[in-house]
Write a structure and sequence with these properties.
Chain lengths: 311, 263
């Protein structure tokens, strides 16, 4: 079986996400696609707008105890805890592979501390293997770093400013939805120097086994994703689009082309396919083809016409 | 990494074979040709949109000529409880996933608890084909639940050693006492000691048998099953704690050396 590739079309698909040129608006949500190699039997990874890699820290992280996931109605909870083998492994093993196949790479950067984010970027800046960064200040599954930073505007401004000084490459900041006012956080990220905003990370949730009287996840709580979160994600993309001038990378429950179009209409310049990859390993290419089909049907000549075109 | 496919497959039959136990035969010619002992398939069923995750199933048997694979499953969760009503229809299988049982042995003892008998059957076929002497111990709650007994008996041309929790067939109690007996007496065919122990079943059973194997100095492999999302090594949901760190049960496993597992 050959890996799936997007259909040929006259529709102009290329977008510019804060300085990152993407051949089409579709990337993947960090953590759902590793660095793409595992999916390469199913989709031609280099045909995606970009591959967003699994969150990386300076040294390897072991992640959380098991069970790490639970299925919930039209969604799932995860509590992986940013397990990763560290930035050196990512560079040597994955980013070189992505470059060799001609893929566009967005590297998701994580840290326990402000300094660690900068150290990870420094390690990556020493290579020419990164097309853009996504700064993860929104993981709900770690005790330090992650969401603890991303819920406080002053912390967001500070850590993003530090990252900004470390790189001149396009920098996307990934926001958590677990806040009262996401526009306040988005503005702080832009003040710190973000070129683009990605949203949403997962919603903090919980699942319980009534018969065992225990949480289903070892860490009790985890991040909710999948179609169940799409309405929340759309609302937040719409709000942030009105609040800031930088382009948005929208995600949350996107499983087909129409879902993607909805995010673009709400204000997203590009979109990420996440949890849908687990159920459908060709979801990324299916979404690109769904976007093409919509545009051809609707007489849309350039996907950029759709961004924020909600009436 | 082996080449994976997402094969459009078809349910041919799906019959009740014991208490909450069912045998599904699936037309899946590509996977039927390539599946190896111990590997599994990751299944997407139609019309279950609220269940967004696939479900992994070990493969109980395969027939290259008819292009079919067999899945022996037990109703335990939200999806397996819906499966008995699926008497036909199209499904999708990602496979063949994972590593395989070792066959590098001279005398093997296979221990299957409950539906854990299923992923060992293709190993038994391979050993039989290679002329390697092996014995099989099957455990279940009741006689009715010993659903793999006939298939093993037909292959081996003799009875597997059986134990039932309620004593309704074979040795009463857990099958672990049979494991102890066999490890002390050696291979039924010639009394020579085993040099390989393959175990699949509930984790407490695998742990006990792994300890017995370690005490007897016999190489032991176990088949681990964890909650899984992608099934192809990307999501890190299904990790197993090992002395070498966390390993993915989907593609680093599902077969692990028992002495590497941190239980």
């Amino acid at each position: 079986m050959n890996a799936a590739v997007p259909s040929t079309t006259d529709v102009k698909l290329a977008v510019n996400l804060g300085g990152l040129h993407m051949k089409n608006p579709v990337t993947v949500a960090s953590g759902t696609f590793a660095a793409g190699r595992e999916y390469s039997d199913f989709v031609a990874v280099e045909t995606l707008g970009a591959v967003t890699t699994k969150g990386v820290s300076l040294k390897g992280w072991e992640g959380n105890a098991s069970p790490r996931i639970a299925e919930t109605p039209s969604g799932m909870l995860n509590s992986i805890g940013l397990q990763n083998p560290g930035v050196k492994h990512l560079i040597d093993h994955d980013l070189t592979w992505l470059r060799d196949i001609g893929a566009t790479s967005i590297v998701n950067v994580s840290g326990h501390s402000f300094d660690e984010y900068v150290q990870v970027i420094n390690a990556l800046e020493a290579t020419d293997l990164v097309d853009a960064y996504e700064i993860n200040i929104s993981c709900p599954n770690v005790d330090a770093g992650g969401m603890t930073i991303g819920t406080d505007p002053a912390s967001v401004r500070e850590v993003i400013s530090m990252c900004r000084e470390a790189t001149s490459k396009p920098m996307i900041v990934k926001l958590t939805p677990n806040v009262t006012d996401i526009t306040e956080i988005a503005r702080a990220a832009v003040d710190g120097g973000a070129n683009a905003i990605s949203l949403i990370n997962t919603l903090l949730g919980m699942a319980i086994d009534a018969y065992r009287r225990k949480p289903q996840l070892a860490r009790a709580v985890g991040g909710l994703s999948g179609p169940a979160v799409k309405p929340v994600a759309l609302r937040m993309v719409w709000e942030v689009h009105k609040a800031v001038d930088v382009p948005l990378l929208g995600m949350g429950g996107i499983a087909n082309g129409i879902d993607a179009i909805e995010f673009m209409l709400a204000g997203a310049t590009a979109i990420a396919v996440g949890t849908a990859n687990f159920n459908n390993p060709t979801a990324t290419v299916d979404v690109i083809n769904g976007i093409i089909e919509y545009c051809e049907q609707q007489g849309v000549k350039d996907v950029n016409e759709l961004i924020g075109a909600l009436q | 990494m082996s080449h994976l496919v997402n094969e459009k497959a078809r349910i041919l039959t799906n019959e009740n074979v014991g208490p909450r136990l069912h045998l599904m035969v699936i037309e899946s010619p590509i996977i039927a040709k390539s599946i190896q002992p111990g590997q599994f398939v990751h299944v997407k069923f139609p019309d279950l949109e609220a269940h967004i995750l696939r479900r992994p199933f070990s493969v109980y048997g395969h027939n290259e000529k008819s292009g079919t694979i067999d899945i022996l499953y037990q109703e335990v969760g939200s999806v397996t409880r819906l499966m008995p009503s699926m008497q036909s229809g199209e499904i999708e299988l990602i496979g063949p996933i994972g590593n395989t049982w070792s066959t590098d042995c001279t005398r093997a003892l296979l221990v299957g608890g409950g539906v854990g008998a299923a992923p060992l059957f293709m190993l038994a076929e391979t050993l039989k084909h290679a002329g390697t002497p092996f014995d099989v111990i099957l455990g279940a709650q009741t006689k009715d639940a010993l659903v793999a007994r006939d298939r093993y008996k037909a292959l081996m041309e003799r009875e597997p050693c059986c134990a039932t929790d309620d004593g309704s067939y074979g040795s009463p109690g857990f099958c672990t006492s049979l494991v102890e007996e066999r490890l002390s007496q050696g291979c039924i065919e010639d009394g020579a000691p085993y040099d390989f122990l393959a175990v699949c079943g509930p984790e407490p059973l695998m742990r006990i048998v792994a300890d017995m194997g370690a005490k007897a100095g016999v190489r032991t492999q176990v088949s681990m099953e964890k909650r899984m999302a992608c099934g192809i090594g990307a999501c890190l949901s299904c990790v197993v704690d090992t002395v070498d760190g966390k390993k993915r049960s989907c593609i680093d496993g599902p077969i692990f050396e028992a002495n590497k597992v941190v239980w």
